Amino acid sequence: MSFAGPSSIHDIQYYGDHIFTTVTATAAVVDEWIANTMHIHKRKLNKLLIGLDTEWCMPTEPHGHQQVAIIQLCVGKRCLIFQLYHADNIPPSLIQFLGNKKFKFVGKEVHNDADKLFEDYELHVAHTKDVESDSQAKKITMSEWNAKELTIEQIEYACLDAFVSLELGIFLSKPRREIIQYLENTSPKKIVNLTLESDQTTEDCEQLDEELDLRQNFGKYKEDVRRMKPARQLVSQTSRKKSPKIKKRMSKKANSRQELVDEMNAISLIN
Prior knowledge:
The protein is an alpha/beta fold. It has ten helices and eight strands.
């Protein structure tokens, strides 16, 4: 089994993505990582999304206190795993980074992580947003996160936890129109577990389903209308040649077609 040293860098691969992961218990390394992150994303600092997660120590007794052992931060394809339990000190740069109200920290039940960080280390996370992702292997989740040297399996787990949280946060922050376009062009296997952790989850998903159904039928409606003549023109062409009974029947048919035109126009407003 491989182990990481006090400060190390790893290339964690996830479905073709390479996440460059720094593992450290040294405040100076955290300073450097944050400074580099701020420089790389300097054009997006007003709307920066950061994947956030924590892992806790195993309890020493039943129902005992579980102190936060590590904090994981992920921005873009760069991840930081800071071993708080063994840290020489907590750098002011991390305090300012977590407390920046312009940044949005995303993760599964991230509010619980924020509460634990404040409870154990008085670290305040200013702005959080919950997302939900796949559950991870319980064996790794319940491992010894307060170990001085983390296993490669732990590093991969911690890195991907923060990375997936970030990717979900980026996806769910997109305008509804872009989400619909993505869903139309993406395999269902890739999106089956993307849900918002909020009271609006069910309603939002239902609205997306309705809009997708409308978009799928839009092409059919559009083709039907393209083949038909305008309703008024249809009535005017037949009114002089047909009996009152036939004219009435044609008028009803024209009205139904006009309703189809109106429905198509309503659907087009989604675009």
